[in-house]
Amino acid sequence: MKTYVIDVQRCSIHDGPGIRTTVFLKGCPLSCKWCHNPESQSFQKELSFQEALCVNCGLCEKVCLSKVHSITENKHTLDYRKCIQCGECEKACNSKALTMIGRDLTPQEVFEVVRKDMVFYDQSGGGLTISGGEALSHVNFSLQLLKLCKEQDIPTCMETSGYGSITAVDKILPYVDLFLFDYKVSSEEDAKEYIGGSLECILDSFNYIYEQGKNIILRCPIIPFVNDNKRHFEAIAELAITYPNILSIELLPYHNFGISKGRNIGKDIECYAIPKDEDKLEWLSFFYTRGINKVHLT
Ligand code: SF4
Ligand code: SF4
Question: Which of ligand 1's atoms lies nearest the C-alpha of 87?
């Protein structure tokens, strides 16, 4: 029951209430154009290269039988398509410029890290958060990890795009205390163009989770020229009215951290404008003037 884990981040304060341990799984069925964690899209291990750490020693070029690395005139280039993820160059690199992203771990192995911070969960109201990639695509792994936490009364939270089957949702539902549910676009055309998925599937999951009485925080990334428009905000407002028990709505203004992470793994991630402060305030007032006060900027 192993899956590729990108990171187990302890003492996180951004992924649900209190102090949390956030588990980032590798692999997502969507491909959002602005993805801030592009290393979480592929279900395979990936090689990451940080140019700033490289001293051009050439050791990686020597050990790589697939001829991924090439250093000429102190310029290091990589042909990522040839990489077979053997990890030999990572071992050879003394500068830590090369990292294989994705460790093959069991739920029990991850839980051993999670349980170390139980004292912080008790004091802060925190717990475990499973994040992505997309946890619904790793449903058996997620289920086992959630069960291990529940056996120790550790509060659980799952960040999800909702892009998965109802069968998968149904499996993990009893073991999740709080869903951080992403809502990114509000039409099938935009879903196809910008996130590579189906809005209907996402809304079906959302509705199912809500109807089961689960706690939900809606998370809405705001991406200039993609969804910072009245039509999308009206759709968010409509959700707030139709589903009054949503705990809160978080607006997440776009940031471009994903671009350098993408470059490190040989992926081009689109760059958008950073939202201005006055625009952010306008988004908030859009909701407040409609009497929807549970909206926050993060
Ligand atoms: S992981 Fe293996 S195949 Fe990929 S670049 Fe390194 S040595 Fe070459
Ligand atoms: S082994 Fe590391 S430091 Fe040396 S050339 Fe390769 S990436 Fe750069």
Answer: 1
